[in-house]
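Record type: monomer structure entry
Structure origin: computed from sequence
Chain ID: A
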Amino acid sequence: MTQSERINRVQAPIIPIVSEMIRQTPGTISLGQGVVSYGPPGESLAQVRLFHEQRELHKYQAVYGVPGLIRGIEKKLEAENGIEIADHSRIVVTAGGNMAFVNALLAIVDP
């Protein structure tokens, strides 16, 4: 087999393939990861510097997130979005999108 034949047997990257399938199937909801084209707000970068000075935050924390960050998100949601977190609800801050997705599934599915 020639090198060109071997290259032609390699599958195209899956993301463009799935994206095309989604475009061809109206009503499909993509659960793919998004890549943003903008940087974080300056305020968050300032907080990152403060984070490095707080050694306790470098350790494993509660699964639902750092309490101060959760309170900040709650305040932001109420002040800027008019969303008040009910007593039976909870904000969860995860280490990434995959962890957030798994936590969301675990919250709503029955094994």
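Annotation 1: The chain has a mean pLDDT of 85.
Annotation 2: The radius of gyration is 21 Å.
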